[in-house]
Specification:
The protein is of the alpha/beta class. It has a single domain, classed as Aldolase class I (TIM Barrel, Alpha-Beta Barrel), CATH 3.20.20. Bound molecules: ligand PBG.
Length: 326
Amino acid sequence: MGFPIVRMRRLRKTSAMRDMLNQVCLRPSNLIYPIFVDENIKKPVPIDAMPGYSRLPISDLVTEGKQALAQGVKSVILFGIPAKKDEAGTSAFAKEGIVQLAARELKNAFGDDLVVVGDVCLCEYMSHGHCGVTEGSEVLNDPTLELLGKVAVSQANAGVDIIAPSAMMDGQVGAIREALDDEGFDDTPIMAYSAKYASAFYGPFREAAESTPKFGNRRSYQMSQGNPQEALREMELDVAEGADMIMVKPALAYLDIISLAKANFNVPIVAYNVSGEYSLVKAAAQKGWIDEKDIVPEILTGIKRAGADLIITYHAKDAKSWLNQP
Ligand code: PBG
């Protein structure tokens, strides 16, 4: 049966009818709000390539947490910029490290009302900017695992609710699960950056987090953009190692990978709408070429429709202004 008996426009007649039939809805509580916390500053420092975003001192975190909650967002992910970088990423697992201090500050203020996610990586803490221990120009896998375990345990000790390893080392989820369990954190979930592609979309983040590698690139550990099958293997391995959730990153150029993840695994799927994706929107909006408040929900709905249960996004900052929420 077809036209004229079938008329698709019948169900699009009024705004109420369209709302009633809306299949994919965004909720602010499905968004995770990234925070850059910087040990070296006393006042927020705007990030050039990310209009509306700043690096923050610890003293601003409670205000920031309140802002997130006021938007209906219940979760933040922390990235640290330490005062001291070295070849062993020591500041990443220091008791008084910047992320550890930030987590304590937020948990003291908000308790269980705010879910604090800790990005577990070494690039921001290494003098060379790579995500693992290096020897010459090589990034070593196995020696890095022990450090990642230490970072995870120190973050859990500081109150971090969810551990999110992003270094793309083989075996990192298993190593972190074991390290956490050994210290009694068997209740702390792991959100694994499983399918993390080597991407030019991370440019603004690296400016913000001062984590650009000093030599070479990340292509020997992050994935190549042409490979969907490899993403499935990465996700399979992470789930087998104990990942409670798996992530695809970036989001927009990888929507097919998000759909694959959703179709193949029975764990929550997270998508990271990364810095470069945010910057593109902001730049075009500033020029008046697009309408930000319409385009942001369209982008996030697309990511959710592809299969993401949760979205890490810098747009979470003003969720209320574009979400039709009471
Ligand atoms: C750390 C890390 C990166 C991002 C999140 N965690 C940068 C990278 O891998 O170079 C990027 C996030 C973004 O661009 O918003 N490894």
